[in-house]
Write a structure and sequence with these properties.
Blueprint lengths: L4 E4 L2 E5 L2 E4 L7 H6 L7 E4 L2 E11 L3 E5 L5 E2 L9 E8 L22 H4 L4 H7 L7 H9 L3 E2 L2 E2 L2 H11 L7 H11 L8 H13 L13
Parallel strand pairs: 1-4, 2-5, 3-5, 4-6
Antiparallel strand pairs: 5-8, 6-7, 9-10
Length: 217
């Protein structure tokens, strides 16, 4: 996810000034004229007492994006060349950008008793906690820095955390190019599944290009 600024699980955040301007991997003059190069830039999730002053953005369609809530669109704060916001304040006691994700568990006290019975209570508490954010992996690394009967206790959360870090917006250069590179060689793992994914990307992102599976040499 290619955000410029992310405010997550935060309390009392005061930003007195910020200018956001991003091109990623390529540039086109049309983006300056239309102002729609990037969908999002400033993201707020599950945070309270958040104040933003003098926020200036360029070619970003949403000035402030809130999870589960109506965003502040840049067109509403357009001043002729840039998108200027003098002040955006949230002073309520409740969180803004509230998550609705209930979370999940990787380890179960009962089902994984054969492994968890041999670990200390602090390790067990870290492993069996409800996962709502990426800090579960960091917690497991700190409290469980060892293996139990050749079982790496932090492996399940580590796999999820690694996958999360590989996430990229569907239509961005990095994601589409990865599939296109696989498609042009018969030696890659590009198969019907990847072909279907690439077809979906090209359709949704208004791109064009070959999608066929090359025969093996």
């Amino acid at each position: 996810m290619a955000w410029v600024v992310r405010v997550i699980n935060s309390l009392t955040v005061y930003m007195l000034g910020s200018s956001l301007y991003s091109w990623f991997s390529f540039y086109m003059q049309d983006y300056v004229e239309t102002g729609n190069y990037q969908d999002w830039g400033f993201y707020v999730e599950q945070s309270t007492d958040t104040w933003v002053y003098n926020l200036v953005t360029k070619v970003i369609m949403e000035s402030i994006s809130l999870i589960g809530e109506v965003p502040l669109y840049s067109q509403d704060v357009w001043n002729g060349y840039t998108l200027s916001l003098l002040a955006w304040l949230h002073t309520g006691t409740g969180a803004i950008g509230k998550r609705k994700f209930p979370g999940f568990y990787l380890w179960d006290d009962e089902q994984d008793q054969d492994v968890l019975s041999g670990v200390l209570s602090t390790y067990k508490a870290s492993l069996t906690r409800l996962i709502r954010c990426d800090d579960q992996f960091e917690s497991a690394l700190v409290t469980c820095p060892w293996e139990d009967d050749h079982v790496v206790l932090s492996e399940p959360s580590g796999i999820i955390w690694a996958g999360w870090n590989e996430i990229c917006e569907l239509c961005l250069y990095c994601y589409v190019t990865c599939y296109e590179i696989m498609q042009v060689t018969p030696y890659s793992i590009y198969d019907e599944t990847y072909q279907s994914d690439l077809e979906f990307m090209l359709l949704k992102c208004s791109f064009s290009g070959p999608m066929n599976i090359l025969p093996l040499l």
